[in-house]
Protein: UspA domain-containing protein
Organism: Sphingobacterium zhuxiongii
Amino acid sequence: MKHVLLVPIDFSENAWIAACYAAELAKKYDWNIQLLHVYQTFSRLLATQEFKDAVSVHNIAAAEQDMEAFNTRFRATYPDIDCTAACMEGNLNDIVLALIEANPIKFLVMGTKGASGLVNVALGSNTYELIRHSPIGVLAVPASAKSFKLEKVGFLTNFKENDVEILKDFIGRTSPSLQVALLHVNEVNKKPKNEDILFWQERLMKDIGINELTYHDYEMVNRLDVNEPIPYAVERLVEEEAVDLLLVSYTRKSFFRNLFSRSLPKTIANKLTIPTYFRKDD
């Protein structure tokens, strides 16, 4: 059975960009695509059951019509990709987590939207909830990602033990032939020792089987507890290393949790200009 990329969509152009990125990823690794649209149940307390049923019928018809148009466009653009499409009523997080548990899904691929944040409620706050709870990675694709390239990934690291497992999981789901750049943000005058960096590089290459691994750091001007400069530092690292995809781990105690918690939508939309893969670490 082929592995699947699950792509939640809201039929916007940003969702289309995410679906196209997923399709190129699927072509690269011979995966299938599952398009998913989740719509909400109408539940106003004062409405009659008859009215609720009528709204539900309308929502189902509208969703299926939009999905048919989206899927037709997708199949015309990517005729060689094995793609299925489904509309489901309910809670996006619950449905996605259930699908992950029951199917061989490699990644979630979700779109982001320019300066106004993640696509909408369904792909906004829920994206963060999925990052927090999904047992597999969530790949956020910005609207600017209109071409596909995946040769070099950048991994934000804080030299913690969980970094090994996070990177191993990603490489295991893609390919050890990818170039990997370790990216690290330093506090002022707290640059890691060269021997420690070399030890970490050698360990990752040995444990994960990566063919090419480099290291690049950036020293902060301000304290790490000042949030605003951190996205700038990450952006600089991404630009200087010219990575195609950014890899970020999420843990309750992670330094990067502070970067990508409450300000996640704003940070992704305004600061990160390349596809970014978030992976929860238990």
